[in-house]
Protein 1
Amino acid sequence: MNSKASFDYLIIGSGAAGLFAANILAKHGRVAILNKGEFTDSNTWYAQGGIAGVTDSDDSIEEHIADTLRAGAGLCHEEAVREIISRGGRIIRELMAFGTPFDTEGDHLHLTQEAAHSHRRIAHAKDATGKAVGETLLRPVQANPNITCLDHHMAVDVITARHLGRYAQGADRCLGAYILTSGGNVVTLPARHTILATGGAGKVYMYTSNPHVATGDGIAMAWRAGCPVMDLEFIQFHPTCLFHPQGSTQLLTEALRGEGAHLTDATGRRFMPNYDERAELAPRDVVARAIDHEMKKRGSDHMLLDVRPLGRKKIESQFPNILKRLLDLGIDIRLEPVPIVPAAHYMCGGVKTDVAGRTAIQSLYVIGESACTGLHGANRLASNSLLECLVMAERCAQEIVKQPLMKIPQLPQWDSSGVVPETERVQIKQNWDEIRSTMSNYVGIVRSDERLRRARRRLAMIREEISSYYWQHPIGRDLVELRNLSLVADLVVRSAQHRKESRGLHYSTDYPDTLPHAQDTILTPGPL
Ligand SMILES: Cc1cc2nc3c(=O)[nH]c(=O)nc-3n(C[C@H](O)[C@H](O)[C@H](O)COP(=O)(O)OP(=O)(O)OC[C@H]3O[C@@H](n4cnc5c(N)ncnc54)[C@H](O)[C@@H]3O)c2cc1C
């Protein structure tokens, strides 16, 4: 990248949210969209089930809203829910216009049903919807001369007027970002508007369905810049992630349970009917807690998902990708149950924003999984997240192009004076492992005051070590990620400590009851 480059719109992250925003903003100015890995490295590419939206005349927006509010356990922001859900049908039609190959039945969309939805309303492209949506949105981005695509370029921090001492009065303003290029240099990239679309932070846990890029970078960057975060204690654990050394991020979509798969113990006994009358179709948190409880009760490191009740024909026609991936690992789901474990899957919380992604800092927007609009409340309804990404991207682009044209700022270069080359990297690996095991053991599906206190103490020590290391050595991707991961882990713990009740995805043995009034957990960064 040319060191003098500047853009009207800088989009950090190329999942569904970033790609959709890029397609819209390119009609109004020069866009740079960047990704710290390949363009296929994102949670979006991993999404299997589909995208929720009302497209069937038997269904209604009010029912989709009611399902979302029920799943959110009293904490959803109804205004955000209404705004996002009411755009569902239109977003699905827009994706079809882009060319997304959703499954059809005659001239209708083929819709699936997932846990806690009262209707079949999930549009899907076989069992690889995210990849289909991603590819459809990526093609026009790569072909557009107004869009510069930069892979292996990692945002390190956003740059604000206040950081540069240019702060006058009113809200701070974002001026661009520091970028670690594919060549290993850090450059400044000025932009009129910066959008963080960096996805979630599943990597703070040992078992996760998320790819390796999900290290919470956007949340950490926004926090360091001065943006409050909201409801970070609500981490959705997917109940059924493959338990296998070579397939630790392989998810078994809940559409399998929606179509009739059973959860069993090693003896083949179904246990979900003992926990909830909806059995395998109970909300994710109920299913994940039941699996966790059965595992702890039996001292087992996994349970089983039996897909055989679906029958060979349905497995082969509706779930060909899962069938193939598991066959590659030596498991034939047509013939045998699959070992599974709950895994960190989705962050309901994030940087506090409105539906247009506006933050506390002017010209800095956060969209998609990194943001928290209040749509999900204390628990996400399945397949609402891709919808949220796309609605936010559209609303964010609309908001940005309404703004008066600001001058592209001049920015100073990154200062790397005083750093010395590293002699070994063992410390980085050790800290990565420690953070992830601390979070899994102490801040997982079931929490307590004592576990959270222990996690906080350990994380404080690790963060101190990382902080001194960070400023003494040249930065690389793993060090930047480690710094972000440790910060996000700490924010999750602090948010969990703040909540003195059990609600939705947050369950504490010290506070098993739900308080009568639902309140968001909002953490605000201290003065810079
Ligand atoms: C296995 C799995 C299955 C899922 N299934 C569904 C489903 O069926 N339906 C549904 O609605 N949701 C599903 N989800 C959730 C959904 O996929 C995500 O919430 C959504 O895709 C998030 O999109 P995003 O654009 O916000 O982020 P992502 O798609 O994660 O994209 C983030 C991007 O930011 C880049 N990035 C991160 N940090 C930096 C940095 N510092 N510098 C530069 N680039 C950076 C990443 O490389 C990536 O390109 C699933 C998630 C997983 C993991």
Protein 2
Amino acid sequence: MAVETHGTGTLPQIKGVKDVPYEELFVSGHRTCQGCESALVMRHMVKAAGPRTIVLGSTGCMYVANTTYYTTPWVVPWMHTQLGASGSAALGTAAGLKVLMRKGKIKNEKINVIAFCGDGGGADMGIGAISATLTHKDYNCLVLLYDNESYANTDIQLSSQTPYGAVTTFSPSGTKKRLMHTRWKKNVPGMLAAGHPESRYIAAGCAAYAVDLMNKIRKALEIGGPTFVHTLDPCPKGWDYHPQYSQELGHLAVECGIWPLYEYLKRQGRFAHFAEEDVEHFQTQVDKMWTEWLIPGVIPFTIAAKDQTILKIDKKPLHEQKTA
Ligand SMILES: Cc1ncc(C[n+]2csc(CCOP(=O)(O)OP(=O)(O)O)c2C)c(N)n1
Ligand code: SF4
Ligand SMILES: [Mg+2]
């Protein structure tokens, strides 16, 4: 979703891998797990944004594993913020920079402000602050939600982004109850796109498609204003698979029509307890997204005028309608 651009033209779209900048601004010296796609998102994010960038990060794996005492992988200025505060931190920093530049206290130049959050911090706890930030059209900041589909840092608890049926420490599969978690994943980019006309750009990405992700980051920063990017990040620890398959799972997730294909599910230990009927249910829900939703993956209903049966509207005159 894009409207007008406030771009300076300093971050052009990347044409292909050969065009990707060499400079690394998120380097070694962190302790994320082997195969951690969220760490790759951080690397791509700041590589795309370039050195004139401030990164703010809310509590979670990308804070804790990236700030071991006395070491940091961040080459750019970086600050930790409270778990639910990525939206507030982004807006406050962008507003602070604007004031300092207006008062002539710092050089008037384009400085990118990016605040990241996990799915727990962003889709659950901090959704209010992100929503508020997306209403402030006068400030340039990007909120990036890296979604590893659990509260990973505190040992894989269930979040609103955990997929239907997945095993987490809060939703173990038992002998009496095979599926503990039976809610469908909340669609955050869809929600935010729907109600925030001042937000100039909202996108979803995946580190397995690195150039595409970097271009989305650049587009957001070039368009300016409050923007939002949501990434899906395979997490070997939480999803229970060998780290060598992270990129492959990212590809599968996108290729299979937003994540759930049979093969995609069976590759992860967190779905190992699924019976055939669970896989079928999952597939039916995905098919429904593509065949019945107004916009697949985003708007879970059709417009009443197009198909009134979806809303179960009784078209008979009132006196002829059945009473319960
Ligand atoms: C207000 C608050 N509640 C709980 C915690 C404990 N805590 C620290 S990290 C974390 C998990 C965050 O999950 P997510 O945002 O998805 O990031 P991830 O760890 O998955 O990268 C929790 C619950 C905290 N730091 N602050
Ligand atoms: S638990 Fe998952 S998100 Fe956290 S560092 Fe490990 S792979 Fe990355
Ligand atoms: Mg998480």
Protein 3
Amino acid sequence: MTTLHLKLRSSLAALVACSALAMLASAPVSAAAPMAKTPAPGFFRIMLGDVEVTAISDGTTDLPVDTLLSNTKKEIVDKELAASYLKSPLETSFNAYVINTGSKLILVDTGAGNLFGPTLGNFVANLKASGYAPEQIDEIYITHMHPDHVGGLAKDGKVVFANATVRADKREADYWLSKANLEKADANSKGFFQGAQASLAPYVAAGRFKPFEGDAELAPGVHSHVGKGHTPGHAEYVIESKGQKLVLIGDLIHVGAVQFAHPSVTIAFDTDTVSAEAERKAEFSRAAKEGYLLAGAHLQFPGIGHVATEGQGYRWIPVNYTQMH
Ligand SMILES: [Zn+2]
């Protein structure tokens, strides 16, 4: 060690000591600011060609996915969750999407309103945070009529979206809005029918509920696609602009950490598990092959990304963060 090195070392040590003293002198007696403990506003926005797509969070809720998932074993579910540093009960996202085509403002699903517990029902607050008001929504496309997708439509028996027309597959409407089906439903599922009927009622009464049948063109560049299995008339919505494509897949998948790698795994909420599994596999296969974007109502917010084939299943690739410059 040379003299120069020693000199440098001692002057560096002196400098460190000095700045440590300075920090001590300027530090307040109590440095702790209260923790904010609030998330970022629940919206995320991308462009898809000329179309603006905004993911809106309705909130999250903890789901006991180890008992809800079926066509698998609890050990496999626990292992896949652990591989993603997760465990059951799993904090699960509830997402809705706002599509601005330039001529129409379209909402896909509405969140749970007050039908699914206190941690959900944040849709309207997050929509406003994203720069839109509920009155600006022209059309609402419903993927299916489970309470966490339609609960946000109405509040205290009145419409939340004053100028919107609501659209859903006719088979979905015929099933959930039927008084006869409500009456014959068992005690556990009556609430699902009641929730759907209360949420749709003010729009039906105002003549602003217009069901469609199967695959239908709903707006320029936007069409529905039958995604059956989860419910009798579960619909996906396909958005296309300038060669880019996004498919809003609703509840085709619930637990990304398990079902991408194992697309044959189903969930207790599926009405027809065989069709749900087939539809999920077909959609993932197309999306991986063609390279288009998917968005899922229960994939971790914002729930938008690509899939790639991996082993016997798929890998989820979340969309890159963008500040839209
Ligand atoms: Zn759902």
Protein 4
Amino acid sequence: MSSTVLHLERVVDRLWPTSGAASWDASGLVSGSPTQHLSRILLAVDAVEATVAEAVDTQADVLLVHHPLLLRGVTSVAQDHYKGALLARLIRADCALFTVHTNADVVADGVSAVIAASLGMADHTPILSIDGDDSAGGGSVGYGRVGSLPQPTTVGRLARDLARLLPATAGGVRVAGGYHQPVSTVALCGGAGDSLLDAPAVVASDVYVTSDLRHHPASEAREQARFRGGTPALIEVSHWASEWLWLATAAQQLRESLADVEIIVSELRTDPWDFAIVE
Ligand SMILES: [Zn+2]
């Protein structure tokens, strides 16, 4: 029996249970039919013009993305707006749209855990556990990851390692802290992680790696770090790049459960920034 979108829904709910999604989130099937036959899935971080075109051009049956195209209340999917136009294009091409968002952030092999594993961190745990008591070093499910590097390094070398590990983006990797500042414990959160700046596990780390740090949260966190003795330093990476890394892991997990389905990871850069000028 060949696979359908319904099979994908079941696999997704086992790999990334929707019970783990944040209450404000909108994960799951966005458009398309559960009975749609499934022979090819394209994975991407964002449903944007480029990835929708890639899905249609490669005759994918599902475009599976991390970020919800529709998150807030929607009263129209008319094609005078890009979102309606993208959905219409997908529907006409019989390509379903599927979102796996915060439910993929929190699992033990989710978005942040993949970054931690890529840095060689072995016994990493959530910064903010949602299935156990953080103070007891509790569960394996939750937001962000914290743990030790296999070898001590410096803030500068870690930033260079991240620049090599992640796909290139215009914004590159930005650092608040000293290049030669020693690093053993790392807290990290793929995507926008400023809400975790004050988390005890972040404050106790040598460095915090995340994305989308605005002036005031970053400035206040660094001033408080200096006030305490200098840690954590901050390393800011591209939101898209930090989450793109997870797609290869997700693809492999899907391949193991949907043997008759071709799983492709989009190589397109959907980071919104095109260039930066530093002079
Ligand atoms: Zn994100």
